[in-house]
């Protein structure tokens, strides 16, 4: 699979910086096509379901947005896939390079943006937070689970966020 730098992506409050990012493009097919695979996030269950032709392939526990920073409900699609992301602190601008202390973990799968802020799936160095409403809107996962998810999806994969 060919990797290229993400063109035209601004630094987001989530800290996804294009100068540090390697993104995979829609033409880089993985195991499923977007028409066969979709991700269904059930906020109340704090789980994401990987669906293939309306059947559950697998599911993973997640952390979701806390009060005031809720994970947005709606229909989206995967718009970014980044290995070893760099994070920029949304309040003070500190840069956290890839590594074990990076709040995004080892992989980022973005599915929502307002042009300034981004929301997506990512790992975490604080795995005890998975299952809680603690994020700034993102979907935190165990690092092993976000890696598995990263290897199943591609740009364009539908993401449905339900209450």
Automatic annotation (TrEMBL):
Keywords: Cell shape, Cell wall biogenesis/degradation, Glycosyltransferase, Hydrolase, Peptidoglycan synthesis, Transferase. GO terms for cellular component: extracellular region. GO terms for biological process: cell wall organization; peptidoglycan-protein cross-linking; regulation of cell shape. SUPFAM superfamilies: L,D-transpeptidase catalytic domain-like. The active site is at 122 (proton donor/acceptor), 138 (nucleophile). It comes from Limnospira indica PCC 8005. The keyword Magnesium does not apply. The keyword Hydrolase applies. Residues 37-162 form the L,D-TPase catalytic domain. One of its GO terms (molecular function) is glycosyltransferase activity. Belongs to the YkuD family. This is L,D-TPase catalytic domain-containing protein. Pathway: Cell wall biogenesis; peptidoglycan biosynthesis. PROSITE patterns: LD_TPASE. InterPro entries: LD-transpeptidase, LD_TPept_cat_dom, Transpep_catalytic_dom.
